[in-house]
Amino acid sequence: MRLFSCLLGLCLARAAFGTAVVSAQDAASGQAVAAQAEAEQPAAEQSMPARPAEETTDVSDLWRRFRHKDEPVPVDLAAVPLKDRFLVFAPTFGSKPSTGLTVGLNGNMAFFRGDTSTRLSTVGGGVRVSQKKQVLANLRYALFGSDEGWYFDGDNRANWTSINAYGLGAFTDTPDATNVKYDFLRFYEAAYRRVRPGFFVGGGFNVNSRYNIRAGGTQSSFDNSAYVSYTESHGFPLDHQASAGGNVAVRYDTRDNAINAERGWLAAATYRTFFKGFIGGDATYQLLSIDVRTYKSLTRSGSQRIAFWMVGDLVTGGVAPFLDLPTTGTDARSGRGYVEGRNRGEHLAYGEIEYRGALTPSGLAGFVAFVNTTTIGSSDTGAQLFENAAPAAGVGLRLLLNKRSRTNFYTDWGWGTNGSRGFYLGIQEAF
């Protein structure tokens, strides 16, 4: 509890620091961690709060009351010169099973490419260090053309990290895991053309490069690991694995708020093709990724609601390197209750239902309860998709940091099968 109190204090300081740096943050930049998703909403749906802001209390309100300060004057974006940039730097921290506690510094810049009737373009990134001696750096951007006819996004990472490599399938035991260390570079770049409001079609290129792969524990454990067995049986090098190629994608988003939605849909599909020899790629294979989310408010205020999430990652052809095989927990908080990489295989389907409720009438505090399940298909083990399942369930608490963007500070506890469990701490919802 002492650790939790310290982390919560850091979170309050982060919220206060962000407000002090630039008063336009609430109205202009939102939160860096959700900048890309927020930017992809239809313009007419970006600000549709079910509960009026004046009836809601967030951490910034508490901070002003503590300091006996008046409510800040709302920023009129129409009066802000277009050359201005809204820049925020703030400390960040979090926790998940694969990294432990992480601390670092994040920054975010938001600006208009056209007049203020267009949506914001954003650039965000930061550097974190983890309890498990990892260094995690990232740079993400979401840029709109002046007429919003084009949209560009990027997800770039440089990590010195490690992961516990489990066997393929959905029922691997914890003692079977072997720690594998590696350096990781990612370059995901894409350009989209708007077909109609909320609907974009595009494509780009994707590069994942993992190098200096080595044992994180004993060499004998590494030599007998599922990583080495799979890699050698498919003829991939042990000390590096790279995938490079292109993609085509479609995305449809009607959510009222991409940071913490109360209603609407997100439906996205991306088809990636990787080529051996292209920018150092080690394999030729195709991967289809599907992401569907929907939200239903149970009350007019949105204080009680249900969220649904469905994910499919399918290797449709070829053979992918071990560390590029579909698994939960790599890009989002899917599979809460299991460590990243616990369930891995050529075909993955994932589903989750989460109930989100308010604990206080002001909306300051809330809670969630969730159940999820993962099913894995693997030709190496003979496992068939939908013939197995790795279920999990959990609960969490929420503290409202920013009422205009609906940004929460979260703590989640998840429990899976065979003693698997996870603790998650940070900013934003799981989906």
Q: Which properties best describe this structure?
A:
431 residues; mainly beta; Porin; 16-stranded antiparallel β-sheet; 12% helix; 47% strand; globular; disordered N terminus
Short description:
With 431 residues, the protein is mostly beta strands. Helices cover 12% and strands 47% of the residues.
Structural notes for this entry:
Helices cover 12% and strands 47% of the residues. The chain is globular, with a radius of gyration of 22 Å. Mean pLDDT is 81; it is low at 1-49 and 73-83. It is mainly beta and 431 residues long. A 16-stranded antiparallel β-sheet has the order 1-2-3-4-5-6-7-8-9-10-11-12-13-14-15-16. It has helices spanning 2-21, 25-29, 35-39, 59-67, 219-223, 226-233, and strands spanning 86-96, 100-112, 120-130, 135-144, 150-165, 178-196, 199-215, 240-253, 264-274, 285-297, 304-318, 347-358, 365-377, 390-402, 407-415, 421-427.
Secondary-structure arrangement, i.e. CATH architecture: Beta Barrel
Q: Report the C-alpha radius of gyration, rounded.
A: 22 Å
The termini sit apart by 27 Å
Mean pLDDT: 81
Q: Which ranges are low-confidence, i.e. pLDDT below 50, for 5 or more consecutive residues?
A: 1-49, 73-83
User: What structural class is derived from the secondary structure elements?
Assistant: mainly beta
Cα shape: globular
What is the CATH C-level name?
Mainly Beta
**Strand order in space, largest sheet:** 1-2-3-4-5-6-7-8-9-10-11-12-13-14-15-16
How many domain regions?
1
**What is the CATH superfamily label?**
membrane protein fhac: a member of the omp85/tpsb transporter family
- Largest sheet properties: 16 strands, antiparallel
Order of helices and strands: HHHHEEEEEEEHHEEEEEEEEE
Residue share in helices? 10-25%
In DSSP terms, counting alpha (H) and pi (I) runs of 4 or more, how many helices?
6
CATH topology value: Porin
Beta fraction: over 45%
